[in-house]
Amino acid sequence: MSDSTSIGIVTPQVAHFSEPLALKSGEVLPQFDLIYETYGTLNADKSNAVIICHALAGNHHVAGIHKVDDKHPGWWDNLIGPGRPLDTDRFFVIGLNNLGGCHGSTGPSSINPFTQKQWGANFPVLTVEDWVASQARLISYLGIEKLAAVVGGSLGGMQALQWTLSFPERVAHSLVIASAPNLTAQNMAFNEVARQAIITDPEFHGGDYYEHGVVPRRGLRIARMLGHITYLSDDAMGAKFGRKLRGDEIKYSFDVEFEMESYLRYQGDKFAGEFDANTYLRMTRALDYFDPAFDFGGDLAAAFKRAKAKFLVISFTSDWRFAPARSREIVQALLDNQLSVSYAEVTAPYGHDAFLMPDPHYHAILRAYLKKIRFGE
């Protein structure tokens, strides 16, 4: 029986932008494409639009399926659909793949119009500010002046914050989930280890591996395995795998002995087969660079003086990568500016990945907040 709350089959679309985009690094992208999907119907005055900003390895396929026998719906399918917390009977939802991505938007594997070869190592380093600037182009392309809400988890939450700073007049509500105002030194260290795994892979070729017809699969695999450990809590890993052996007895070797090892190797292999190494480098660098307080001597409250949106900030108790204390820093900076902010700290065992889970308490918070949004605010 079909699920009446599912989006059903969706078809990605591509928007082309021929006007150059000036990047924060000083480089300029002469032109670019963004691939996106939409769910729901844009209302007559175009005031019910919501944009979903994806996390590090995400893309434009947020909800629904691409074909009838598709076993894997969009990455936030449990949240979006008719009657779901982000109700597509009310909202027009937009999911897009960020610039620099590897799922259809212009990125390192795209053709450089200057050389007619793939960009490779020459594709510029991007920032959260650059992504938001390109997203604003897409919103204008769709004829939307102001968003009812920007929603994002993790790196997507950073984009939801940046929207309120780059375009304070164009966003009414910002939903910042499992995120932080910047990365801690420990988080940057994880990113650096992941990048070094990729860069030192013999098949990386300085980022121009496309020309050699190879993929730095080993580096990508290790990077993903490392990242995956940080997305889960110790309790979640213990509950799922514990110290369970893969076979019937210990082999006293370096082959897979435990279920956890098997799981990590599976996740690493799967990721290495579908993601682009140059994109991974740029996504993690954008995480490192994000720091709205940087130009204000580290004063986050000063950074948010220009924000006008209303905010919902959500953290999860077991998220040690972006701990609740980091969300409370955001809340305090917003309150210091007398901005409207609601904050929820959700008790959940899943670690950082909790923002992707269909936790009833978490979804009830989102549903209640989104129901109160009035279009045209």
TrEMBL record:
GO MF entry, a single one: homoserine O-acetyltransferase activity
Pfam families: Abhydrolase_1
Residues annotated as site: Important for acyl-CoA specificity: 321
E.C. numbers: 2.3.1.46
Keyword terms of this UniProt record: Acyltransferase, Amino-acid biosynthesis, Cytoplasm, Methionine biosynthesis, Transferase
Sequence positions that bind substrate: 224, 353
Residues forming the catalytic site: 154, 319, 352
Protein family: Belongs to the AB hydrolase superfamily. MetX family.
Protein name per UniProt: Homoserine O-succinyltransferase
Source organism per UniProt: Methyloradius palustris
